[in-house]
Amino acid sequence: MDRDDLADFLRRRREALQPEDVGLPAGRRRRTSGLRREEVAALAHMSTDFYARIEQRRGSRPSEQTIGAIARALRLTQDERDHLLGLAGYTPPPRGFRTEHVSPALMRVLDRLDTPAQVVSDLGVTLQQNALGAALMGEHTHHTGLDRSVFYRWFTNDPIERALFPEEDHPIHSRSYTAALRAVHGRTTGDREADELIGALLRQSPEFAALWDRHEVAIRTDTRKRIQHPAVGLMTLDCQILTAENQLERLVVFTASPGTEDAERLALLSVIGAQTFTRV
């Protein structure tokens, strides 16, 4: 049980919630933002003293059922719940396994897509790309060592990775990548690959270390991304993240809204292909 991180995570999630987020009246003006400890305790059906002891790094280890009740009270996502279980010393329910081989189901989908797509692992390693995926994002499957992870390349300021997105969007991607790694880290203990990657980033990237201390946990399953392509220009694309039976493999699919300039540029990219895809 990691008392310090458990307390820190609970406090930060509690302070991020407003009464209306959990169906409570706002009441009179509050001196501090977020829910009060007694409100979380009531939502989790436990005494305020018991919950306060957890946040204060005191008392006995909460049971797995208690952790589940707190997770529901704080409206945690599945990733955040698993992270909380790990901090309390419990093994979250398995949701997949890491492998170098793409599952047949995802490969069949990837082979039939006529839009940029790629399969990535939970550590940001690209396992497979279709031709349009490589044309849009660059060829990612040739990297070795820690460089295989987009998280590592991003936080060690790889100019190719950074140039892919407009500079004003970099903080968003940094937070998203860090939160995704937090989710991986909290899912299980003894994950050698994850520990090696996170340890290297904490040593080498002050930006990552600062964001890591914020203790944000999330894996986004859909988003919009602005991609600065060197050949066709800036595009705003929808990015859908799909999983099959192995939830540690994710199929990332990029599409553009029909009839838009983004769709026209994506169509142009399909004609150009990867032949002119170079960056300096």
Write the layout of secondary structure elements.
Elements (H helix, E strand, L loop, with lengths): L2 H14 L20 H7 L4 H8 L8 H10 L4 H10 L16 H9 L4 E5 L4 E4 L1 H7 L12 H6 L3 H5 L6 H18 L4 H13 L1 H7 L9 E8 L3 E11 L5 E7 L5 H12 L8
Helix pairs in contact: 2-3, 2-4, 4-5, 5-10, 10-12, 11-12
Notes on the protein architecture:
The protein is elongated and about 65 Å long. It has 280 residues and is an alpha+beta fold. It has 2 domains: 3-87, Orthogonal Bundle (434 Repressor (Amino-terminal Domain)); 104-169 and 220-272, Beta-Lactamase. The protein starts with a helix and ends in an 8-residue tail after the last helix. A hairpin with a 4-residue loop joins strand 1 and strand 2 (126-129). A 5-stranded antiparallel sheet has the order 2-1-5-4-3. It has helices spanning 3-16, 37-43, 48-55, 64-73, 78-87, 104-112, 131-137, 150-155, 159-163, 170-187, 192-204, 206-212, 261-272, and strands spanning 117-121, 126-129, 222-229, 233-243, 249-255. Pfam families: HTH_31 (PF13560), MLTR_LBD (PF17765). This is Helix-turn-helix transcriptional regulator. GO terms for molecular function: DNA binding. It comes from Solirubrobacter ginsenosidimutans. Residues 34-81 form the HTH cro/C1-type domain.
